[in-house]
Amino acid sequence: MSSQIKKSKTTTKKLVKSSPKAQLPKAAAQNQIFSCQFEVFGHVQGVFFRKHTQKKAIELGITGWCMNTTQGTVQGMLEGSLDQMTDMKYWLQHKGSPRSVIEKAVFSENEPLPINNFKMFSIRR
């Protein structure tokens, strides 16, 4: 009988010890950084769209960049958590700068990153 008690104590100890390890992937997933490219179409140049995009990205904690294109769109790269990315994508699709008229926004797939490639969100010229 005492051997059964020892085994159950050992088993209990193993379960307790392995429990935090089981939680690590969850915590790591919440802190995972993702990146995606975007392009916004419509009346998005000459209306301070890039400046407002930078302001919103900084507010959300997103890093990356944006720039005007010769086709009249705004393109860029976003890096952040899934929640940050979701909020920024919504803003790029539906809000934008006060004077912009967004027709559509296109995003690449979210790609997981080991670390951020950018330290801040910048406007490229």
From TrEMBL:
It catalyses: an acyl phosphate + H2O = a carboxylate + phosphate + H(+). GO terms for molecular function: acylphosphatase activity. SUPFAM superfamilies: Acylphosphatase/BLUF domain-like (SSF54975). Its EC number is 3.6.1.7. PROSITE patterns: ACYLPHOSPHATASE_1, ACYLPHOSPHATASE_2, ACYLPHOSPHATASE_3. Keywords: Hydrolase. Residues 1-23 are annotated as: Disordered. InterPro entries: Acylphosphatase, Acylphosphatase-like_dom, Acylphosphatase-like_dom_sf, Acylphosphatase_CS. Residues 1-16 have a biased composition (Basic residues). The keyword Heme does not apply. It is an enzyme of class 3 (hydrolase). Residues 35-125 form the Acylphosphatase-like domain. The active site is at residues 50, 68. It holds the Pfam family Acylphosphatase. Belongs to the acylphosphatase family. This is Acylphosphatase. It comes from Drosophila melanogaster.
